[in-house]
Structure formats: C-alpha cells, structure tokens
Design a protein that fits this description.
The protein is 3% helix and 59% strand. It has 2 helices and 19 strands. The strands form 3 sheets. A 12-stranded antiparallel barrel has the order 3-4-5-7-8-9-10-13-14-17-18-19. The longest helix is centred in the N-terminal third of the chain and has 5 residues. The protein is globular, with a radius of gyration of 24 Å.
C-alpha cells in the first residue's frame, strides 16, 4: 500500500471539523518532530506522524468568517372559498430575508496524540428584512418593509475529540461538543433586538469514519444534538407574561462525502448532509404549530496551503430543502503556533 493509502485520510479533518498538522515535506519529518502546518489532501505524510488529531503539545488558532442567507415566502388567507379559484377575504403575502455574518475564533490543543480539546468564540451579526403586501380587493399598494439589524456575542462552544484506532482503516474519531447560552436568547429580546443564540444549552456526541481509497478519501459523520429543556418567559398575544417549560426538538445529523488531492498544496471535497429536527414540546406536550424539520444541503470545499504555518479553507453550502439555509459561505484560516 502506498503512502497515500496509509495516511492521506488525515487531510480530511482539515475540511470537516478541524485542522490536522503535518510537515511540509515527506523526507524531513521524523517521529519526534512536531508537524509544521495544517494538512491538505495533497501532502504525502510520513507514516510515523502521530495520529489524525492535533499532535500532543501543538496548538492551532483558527479564525473563520461565515455568510449565511435564508429566505422564506408565506401567504396567509383570512376568508373563505366560493369557488376553487375564487377566495373572498384578506390575502397577505410576506417575504422574509435573513442575513447572518459570524466571525469565529477557535483554538485547538493536542493533550495527547489521541485526544484533542477545542474552544470556540463566535460574534454574530444579523440583518433581517420583512416585506408584507395585503390584497383585500383594493388597488395594489406598495409592500410594507421592515428591517432589523443587531450584533452580539454568540453561544460559546467547547469540544473534545478522541481517535479510537491509530492503525488499520477505516479510522474512527469520537467526539462530544458542548454549547453554552452566552448568546442573546430569542426570549430575551425587546424592541428591535435580534437573537444571537439559541437560548438553550446543548450536548452533541458525534462519530466520524474516514476511509482512504487512493487517491480519494471517503468520510461519514453521525451526530445527535440534545437540547436541554429549560423554563422561559414571554408575553402572549394579549400582553400577559407567561412562564413555560420549553423543550427544543433534538437533532439527528448525517453527512458523507469525499476529498481528492489535486497536488501537494491544493485539494477539494464534495459532500451531502442531512439533519432532522424533531418537534418542540411545551410543558411536555407538542406545540400546535410545531413541525418536523428536514434540512438537507450540498457542500463543496477547497483547501490551499499558503505556507508552512497557514492554510486557507473555503467552503460553500447550498440548501436542498425548504427548511435549509439557501446559501452559506465559510472562510477559515488555521494558523499553527510554535
């Protein structure tokens, strides 16, 4: 089996969930040397390099920027149907566009060659635009448009990853991610404020499989997000303050794809992901207007090694279902600190 077959799978994590470190050249790396930069698919690594995750004692600082665009169109009818094509009453159409910019700072440290710890600090900017047009039989009028913008700290995250097997493909990596409630909750907003967090803590166990198939690398990931229920307070339609126990629906996620090396510095990946979000419960009962959400998306990514310490990662996601975000662009620049 070639060197690519032995270790090219390591490059995959640079495009999945975190960078992997490697030396710039094959013949200069020894078992006692620390890798010098974030890995790309094209690197021909020495088999003696330690594991898939960040090596023991190494630290990676990962700065990121993401742009997410989401839109929805709804039509509300208050009236009755006289004929199949004739509706008497008020018809209101609304168009909602949401733009989210997230700036993130992530640090990863190798506790051992098998165990890695990670922490992430996000800053979130949101811009929402809502347009409404009512058709009540009168001459058409211009739509009423409202815009809102806000920014604040998002939900802080911490994660641990553990490489289960060091030799013998496929390679398995187990992890768990914890999300806090440092962002502004949707139940804490007032006036024109927008939320920058979910308002609920969550725990996400996950499992990743990596299978090298020269010259490609196949990957799959399975995750489950457990949103911890909590008591929230809000004003109802009549302005009365209510306090209820809210349990956000948990999420099951699955993703799979492949990575391919173009040359020692440049590589790309293609993948599909799907998430199922279960219905929200209030005081242990299903909410009347809650529904099961299906989020599917297609992803493409590219990875380029700028220098021995820095790698540029660019990824895009396109939504395939109505509930998924329309488009997402993510740019990451992991930097290896000596």
């Amino acid at each position: 089996m070639s060197n690519i077959n032995n270790i090219s799978y390591i490059a995959l994590l640079a495009l999945l969930s975190g960078p992997v470190l490697a030396d710039e050249t094959n013949n200069s790396t020894t078992q006692n040397e620390k890798p010098k930069r974030v890995q790309t698919f094209g690197d021909l690594l020495d088999p003696d390099l330690p594991g898939v995750l960040t090596p023991k004692g190494s630290f990676v600082l990962d700065t990121s920027f993401s742009f997410t665009q989401n839109s929805s169109n709804t039509v509300n009818v208050v009236g009755y149907t006289v004929l199949p094509a004739l509706i008497v009453g008020l018809i209101e159409a609304s168009d909602t566009d949401r733009t989210t910019l997230t700036f993130g700072l992530t640090g990863r440290y190798g506790i051992t060659n098998r165990l890695e710890v990670e922490a992430r600090i996000p800053w979130v900017y949101r811009y929402d635009s809502i347009s409404r047009r009512a058709n009540d039989g009168q001459p058409s009028t211009a739509p009423e448009t409202q815009t809102f913008s806000d920014s604040d700290l998002g939900d802080l995250e911490a994660a641990f990853k553990y490489q289960i097997n060091m030799t013998g493909a496929p390679y398995w990596i187990a992890g768990v991610r914890f999300k806090s409630t440092t962002g502004r909750s949707p139940f804490e907003t007032s006036g024109d404020e927008l939320s920058t967090g979910s308002g609920f803590p969550s725990i996400e166990p996950n499992l990743t499989m990596i299978m090298p198939l020269d010259p490609a690398v196949i990957y799959a990931n399975l995750s489950y997000i457990w949103n911890i229920k909590d008591d929230v307070s809000f004003d109802d339609a009549d302005g009365n303050r209510q306090s209820v126990e809210l349990d956000l629906g948990d999420t099951i996620g699955f993703s799979a794809g492949m990575g391919f090396s173009v040359n020692p510095k440049f590589s790309f990946s293609l993948g599909l992901s799907h998430k199922t979000i279960f219905k929200t419960k209030q005081d242990g009962q299903n909410v009347d207007n809650a529904k099961l959400l299906q989020l599917s998306s297609m992803s493409m990514g590219a990875n380029y090694a700028i220098n021995p310490e820095t790698t540029l990662n660019v990824g895009i996601n396109a939504g395939l279902t109505a509930d998924a975000p329309d488009f997402q662009l993510t740019v990451r620049v992991p930097y290896t600190l000596k």
